[in-house]
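Before surveying the methods themselves, let us examine one representative protein, pairing a chain with its fold in token form.
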Amino acid sequence: MVIRNNINGDFSIVKTISEIEPGAFINIDWDGKKLMLPYSLRKDYLSFTDRKWDWRYQINQDGLVKDKNPILYELLPSGIIEDHICQLGET
């Protein structure tokens, strides 16, 4: 998993969640799938989504992003939303 900011086409790698800016995207290589999801501004969570896949970090009551256990949501053809709880490894 790599998060990149797209400022003037430089695609700089984001080292901490607080560095994410509009135009950012995430690349995820998971379970044989390669996903590239754009950053989506949300009120209650930090999200990268293409409307089929949604990678989310929850925001706690103090307004801090919980960056250790994001959830990957998948919209199935039946309309059911399946969640995949993720544990990030060391990079």
User: Anything to note?
Assistant: Strands lie at 2-5, 12-13, 25-30, 33-40, 45-49, 53-58, 71-75, 81-85. The mean pLDDT is 90. Residues 2-85 form one domain.
